[in-house]
Fold each of these.
Amino acid sequence: MVEVANQRFGAKAFRRRELMDTTEQAVRQRGLWTKDDDELSGSVGTKSRGLAQIDFRFFDLKRSGALVSDRRDRWRLASPNPPSLSEFVQPPSDIEAPPNRAETHVQRIVRDTNAAKSLKALYDYKCQVCGLRIEPASCSFYFEVHHVRPLGGEHCGLDNHSNMLVLCPNHHAMFDFGIPHFLPSEMIFIGETSHNLTCKHNLTADVIAYHNKQIHSEFSA
Ligand SMILES: [Zn+2]
């Protein structure tokens, strides 16, 4: 009853019958209201036995201090709990419906993961730009390898170390968008900021030139 009273009335005053009815509803919704509760008549007027039992609980709750009555048949909770925040937070409108879906066909190149795997170990799974290492589980690392001259389309880059960088997801995305450019081979500029690459292997000059001319200029034009 206290839980129902808190949900239904909070700090507001209520009549005894109002709380009895809402308590009965709550009990029915939970499947705990039996046929006997309807059929057996109780000792209080025409109420069912179940409703009468709820009525009797008023005395227990008043004795325990949970319910107080400040005038005839006007009750309230002694210490209502504030409603939880989630009751007031409306979901953002953009998640009320699932996003639209579109069917696409993607052509993927099967990459030589062995080349990528051996390079990651060389860098201890750390981004060559920022040094970030992502460890989703103990001794398990997430890494991405970027092909400076892309493998697909008209680019025809090679899947070998001289065309690869070990990067975190952020810097990988920046390279995919052609945002950084090399100046010289072991330094990149992202906007106005220079970053020294950690380099334990060498990119070939033609790969760097390809990035600066075809990838960087393509996106910054
Ligand atoms: Zn990074």
Amino acid sequence: MQNMIDSGYASIRRKRVVVIGGGFAGLNFVKHLDARRFDVVVIDRNNYHCFPPLFYQVASAGLDPASICFPLRRELRKRGSRNIQFHMGEVKNIDCSHRIVRTKTEEVGYDILIICAGTTNNFFNMPQLEKSVYTLKSTSQALRCRNDILDILEQASLEQDMERQKKMLNFVVIGGGPTGVEIAGAIGEMKRYVLPREYPSIPQENMTITIVEGNTRLLGTMSEKSSEVAYRDLKSLMVDIELGATMHDYTDNVVTLADGRKIDCSHLIWTAGVIGENIAVTGTGGKDISEELIGRGGRWKVDGLCRVKGVDGVYAIGDISIMEDVDENFPNGHPQLAQVAIQEGKLVARNLMELEKAEECAARKENYTPRLKEFKYNDKGSMATIGRNRAVVDMKNMHLSGFMAWLAWMFVHLMSLLGMRNKITALINWIWAYFNYSTSLRLLIHPCRYPLRRRWMD
Ligand SMILES: Cc1cc2nc3c(=O)[nH]c(=O)nc-3n(C[C@H](O)[C@H](O)[C@H](O)COP(=O)(O)OP(=O)(O)OC[C@H]3O[C@@H](n4cnc5c(N)ncnc54)[C@H](O)[C@@H]3O)c2cc1C
């Protein structure tokens, strides 16, 4: 019988599980769910899964976007179940009272909803920045950054007036966390190794890269040793570092710091903050209930089982969720990292299968108490890379830096990429770049303007 699970003596209807977001959390949830027992619909605004830790490599022309993205349909088909569907669309609204999610093109009903839409850029109280700064929260944003860097290098190489050339090439990175350090390091490598070889008309001193961090050290979430190494390595890549400094304003190509100092800046790369993706949520009578459900940083408040507090059948996992006062090591919520998203995805899939098993047993008039597990984060450590062959790695009782850390970083990232083709192309690009300081990816392919397609601009 269609849409039913045969539990032996009685049949129960397969529940429809709707998953918003095919990122780390969403994919790992689906991977660990027994799809014979559920109807699963994965909705994502893109038709591919992407790997954010390597966005900075796309932005600095180290990797092509296809190496860090993987088609969601293909990944879901690999699960080998007809019960899993993919719908491309951006969820705009969740109606909790009718159990419906809405995209621009459809309404999808759910029995169980898994929200794992991740985060977007947070410009704090400077919304005007959205239109003037570069960001690295999606493949398209990383590509835009890459194209504009390549474009300005081409333009600057034709500029005869050295003062004007200088003004074209001052890059400021706001935020000294792993993403800020990685992108500053990658642009630093361009300055140190690529400019002299490929743009001889641009003297190195005409390009400046400054990283601005509010904390008194870089990589504030990592060990002090890692911060010191990152500082030293960035300096060797000719990156200027402003610590204990916050950005107050960015207008007319000038960054103003809170203490009044000004830095010329033709390209500002913003890595300073994230906020949960904004999805409207309504309850009975269409009432907006977002204030009840969504907490600090735009993150949905969940209990130890990742259930959204105050609403039935809805779970939130990954970056978009916050679990406070559950895990003794993380009373203020877990860090927004891939491992947290992956582990939460696995846990919720496992718990849902336990609950389903209990229902099936009940249908057979058997007793079964579901063994539900609370989330406990297993911290496997953190790492960041600074340029072509340097990195820092912090694990439980171990710190690595330099070439060994870079090898460890490369191994972990290669293993985490989806698809053998992606692993191989990324490895070839890295080995190639390691030996000859060059990639063939610095191609500036402008998108064609016509025909206009409105739906891609919305
Ligand atoms: C530049 C960068 C570097 C990072 N580096 C590291 C690192 O080195 N190590 C580490 O552990 N973590 C790193 N992170 C964090 C890590 O990427 C996140 O913790 C992880 O991606 C969270 O997984 P997620 O599934 O919650 O969200 P995501 O992976 O962001 O996935 C969210 C998915 O939801 C989709 N989506 C969003 N809104 C909607 C909507 N309204 N409707 C439909 N679909 C939607 C998106 O398209 C996306 O596919 C980095 C993040 C960034 C941005």
